[in-house]
Write a structure and sequence with these properties.
Number of helices: 4
Largest sheet: none
Strand content: under 5%
Oligomer: single chain
Helix content: over 70%
Length: 180
């Protein structure tokens, strides 16, 4: 930029004066920067700074690799656990379905047994009721016969008492003896 200003002054007809470049011990500022950088690099090499940096980086790399290996192991373990739980869930679902089927089968067996027991019980009670009815009919018929026989006997007594005399009895006795 200073060169541009000098050129602009020359073009304008003015005389340009250059300022002397500063120097110390015969070295320019650029040389001082180069010298300080060289000394810094030599000191860093003398103190083995690059080795310390690389060993620190190597240690960091090793730690990161260790963490990555641990993460891979944890991931594999997590996937194994996941697979195990998926299989457990599948087995639990199968077991639940089997339990439901078993319960349905038992329920159907209980219902069919109850129906059969009900049919047997109804048949038994119907037989008992029929037997009671028949017994009641027989008892009623026997009672009716007994009453009929009593009525007939009473009527025969009255008829015999009213119409039979000693003479009629003698004739009947003689007929009975003659029939023997």
């Amino acid at each position: 930029m200073a060169n541009l200003a000098a050129l602009a002054m020359l073009a304008a007809g003015a005389v340009a004066h250059e300022a002397p470049e500063p120097s110390a011990l015969g070295l320019t500022p650029q040389m001082w920067v180069a010298l300080s950088m060289t000394v810094l690099i030599i000191i860093a090499l003398g103190l083995k700074v690059p080795g310390m940096l690389t060993s620190g980086l190597d240690a960091s790399i090793a730690e990161i690799r260790k963490q990555l290996e641990e993460a891979k192991a944890l991931r594999a373990e997590a996937e194994a656990l996941r697979a195990e739980y998926v299989s457990r869930i599948a087995n639990a679902e199968k077991d639940a379905a089997a339990m439901i089927d078993h319960a349905r089968g038992e329920a159907e067996a209980i219902v069919s047994k109850a129906q059969a027991d009900t049919a047997v019980t109804l048949a038994r009670r119907e037989k008992i009721a029929t037997d009671k009815i028949e017994a009641a009919e027989r008892a009623a018929i026997a009672e009716l016969r007994a009453k009929t026989a009593e009525a007939a006997t009473a009527a025969a007594r009255r008829l015999i008492a009213a119409h039979h005399t000693a003479k009629a009895d003698k004739t009947l006795v003689d007929e009975a003896i003659g029939g023997i």
